[in-house]
Write a structure and sequence with these properties.
Strand order of the largest sheet: 1-2
Strand content: under 5%
Number of helices: 17
Shape: globular
């Protein structure tokens, strides 16, 4: 198996390029839309996109929960040499993704106004929000499926197909924005339609994998469905919470900005709300590159390779985080000019917002990578704890408390401070686990047996299955 036998640095580079390429192109959707809307609709349109941004994070959460959770188990099973177990993991994940999508679709159709008011919209912004959001709601499955499918394609040895699909979809989105928003003057609706078309194209290309002979994503009938869902959720909850936490953080930030500042500050934060998911997606790309490699080698008990993949991912994340911070520190005003035609009084406050906030990204890179890595070695509970600390338990109180001490400056510093705390805790835990007694004990047992103690703990009877109809590659 290539994950276990290939040169560590070569296969890491292969998956890193594909995963980051996918993450960048996928994030282009909201990023480019915010630029198009800001240039055509001004500050009100940018503020509306800040309200819509949590919706994307919410949908990505469920795609990751089912996709990453299932693919971690899928790849670990393959590392153990248990192909039927791997197929059962895929089948169960697909069923879970379908059920979640149906529930979300119905909920947003019925309760979209309360949802967007909760996300920070008021009477002025809400009509603009709905011009865009109505199209996302109508085609909601196409905003969950790409994340889900991309996770399994990477674990099934097709990372470049996943990347190619996302890049093509992103290009379609960019061309659509130019045509619909500017040439035809459709404003926010045009940006939304362009995004929908890009997502549909991306999903269609990814589905082409099921017609390839090398496709290993075959359907079986999983047993013990309830136990399987619990194992799936445990495996994927950490990385999923990162995106769900982005919803919480965005909503809390939007409401705090309106209390401590006003629409001008919210418009500036709207630019950050478009840029931050792009950077977090890049960090997620590093984590998604490491995940199949670590999961397979964990299943095969190749612990030295597991450590090496962690160190490569950590170095990459820290370097990227430092680069992102430099962009915000050096070029805050050009950033905002790129997104919207801002008034002079708006541009005057941009440096005071960007420079403290952009200190966030080096520790954020560590936290995101740590969450994926802990899932990959089946430390699902600790992965969930790191994500909860980052997304709710430390960031939330910081966002509420620091403005009481430092006013708006405290609000912009809240996330960098909380992120540093979580990153330090995650690094301490991983250092102890991958060099400590747990890993040493695992190294003393023979390789390529049926899993370590951690694997056995996570394993459930659902993993065995019988071949079902519609299996790919047949």
């Amino acid at each position: 198996m290539d994950f276990i036998t290939a040169d560590v640095k070569a296969i890491y580079r292969k998956y890193l390029i594909a995963s980051i390429g996918s993450a960048l192109a996928l994030s282009v959707y909201s990023f480019v839309d915010t630029i198009a809307v800001g240039q055509s609709e001004g500050e009100l349109g940018t503020a509306a996109m800040a309200v819509i941004s949590p919706l994307y994070s919410f949908l990505t959460f469920f795609g990751i929960l089912c996709g990453i959770g299932g693919s971690v188990l899928f790849s670990a099973a393959r590392g153990e040499g248990r192909e039927e177990k791997a197929r059962a993991c895929y089948t169960l994940s697909l069923m879970a993704a379908g059920g979640v999508t149906a529930l979300l679709w119905a909920g947003l159709f019925l309760f979209h106004d309360p949802v967007f008011r909760f996300f920070g919209a008021d009477e002025v912004i809400l009509p603009k929000v709905m011009e865009y959001a109505q199209w996302v709601i109508r085609f909601l499955p196409f905003f969950i499926l790409p994340t889900f499918l991309g996770a399994f394609l990477r674990n099934d040895g097709a990372p470049h197909l996943a990347m190619g699909a996302v890049i093509v979809g992103g290009c379609v989105n960019i061309l659509g924005d130019w045509l619909l928003v500017f040439a035809l003057g459709l404003g926010m609706e045009g940006a939304a339609v362009a995004t929908v078309i890009g997502s549909v194209v991306q999903t269609a290309i990814m589905c082409g994998h099921f017609f390839r002979k090398r496709c290993g994503l075959r359907l079986v009938r999983p047993r013990h469905f309830g136990k399987g869902i619990r194992k799936l959720g445990t495996a994927g909850i950490g990385s999923g919470i990162l995106d769900l936490g982005s919803v919480f953080i965005a909503v809390l930030m939007n409401n705090q900005i309106m209390r401590c500042g006003g629409p001008t500050e919210l418009a500036v934060y709207g630019v950050i709300a478009a840029v931050s998911p792009l950077f977090q997606a890049v960090f997620g790309g590093v984590g998604q590159a490491v995940q199949p490699l670590v999961s397979a080698n964990c299943g095969a008990k190749e612990w030295d390779r597991v450590r090496t993949f962690w160190r490569l991912g950590l170095t990459t994340s820290l370097a990227l985080g430092a680069a992102f911070t430099c962009l915000g520190e050096l070029f805050p005003v050009p950033f905002v000019r790129m997104f919207m035609d801002a008034a002079p009084e708006t541009l005057a406050i941009v440096p005071s917002v960007f420079r403290p906030y952009f200190l966030l990204f080096p520790p954020l890179g560590v936290t995101v990578l740590a969450t994926y890595f802990l899932e990959s070695i089946l430390h699902g509970k600790m992965s969930m704890l790191v994500a909860l600390l980052r997304s709710f338990l430390i960031s939330g109180p910081a966002i509420l408390a620091l403005p009481l001490l430092l006013d708006l400056t405290g609000l912009w510093l809240a996330l960098p401070v909380s992120e540093c705390i979580v990153a330090a805790a995650a690094l301490a835990y991983i250092k102890r686990r991958i060099t400590g007694p747990d890993m040493d004990e695992a190294r003393s047992t023979p390789k390529h047996t049926t899993g370590s103690a951690n694997l056995k703990e996570e394993e459930g009877n659902f993993i065995e299955g019988r071949p079902g109809p519609g299996s790919c590659g047949r």
